[in-house]
Amino acid sequence: MPRSVNSVAKRARRKKVLKQAKGYFGRRKNVWTVAKNAVDKAMQYSYRDRRNKKRTFRALWITRINAGARLHGLSYSQFMGKLKANEIELNRKVLADLAMNNPEAFKAVVEKVK
């Protein structure tokens, strides 16, 4: 009895990976073994960097809040401590947006906590 192989599924798997490798340079886009390795590595990077993006944005927001607070004579840690003490529950994303795009509103928040 001849050996049974599922060529349809095999071809579909390979097509899926080669489609993901579209746009890569050289053999990475059209040679199966090279493309598979490149796509696997790209998936690892994307998984890792979805987590790193959150850290990066938080650091950016902290930097912006610090710059805005220092214009009004407070450090970042003093400002955040006073926010907590006054039970003002604005997250860092909103505070950073206020500091950048709406300085009057940020100043009002600083005056409220002083």
Give the count of structural domains: 1
**How many individual β-strands?**
0
Low-confidence stretches: none
CATH topology: c-terminal domain of poly(a) binding protein
Structural class: mainly alpha
Question: What top-tier CATH class fits best?
Answer: Mainly Alpha
Number of helices: 5
Task: Please report the distance between the alpha carbons of the first and last residues.
Answer: 86 Å
Radius of gyration, in Å, reads 26 Å
Largest sheet: none
- Average of the residue pLDDT scores: 96
Q: Can you identify the CATH superfamily?
A: Ribosomal protein L20, C-terminal domain
Encode the helix/strand succession as letters. HHHHH
What coarse outline follows from CA principal-axis ratios? rod-shaped
Instruction: Assign a percent range to the helix content.
Output: over 70%
Q: Could you say what the CATH architecture is?
A: Orthogonal Bundle
How much of the sequence lies in strands comes to: under 5%
Keywords: Ribonucleoprotein, Ribosomal protein, RNA-binding, rRNA-binding
Pfam family, one: Ribosomal_L20
GO molecular function: rRNA binding; structural constituent of ribosome
InterPro entries: Ribosomal_bL20, RIBOSOMAL_L20_CS, Ribosomal_protein_bL20_C
Describe this structure in words.
With 114 residues, the protein is mainly alpha-helical. It has one domain: Ribosomal protein L20, C-terminal domain (c-terminal domain of poly(a) binding protein, Orthogonal Bundle). Helices cover 74% and strands 0% of the residues. Helix 1 packs parallel to helix 2 and helix 2 crosses helix 4. The mean pLDDT is 96.
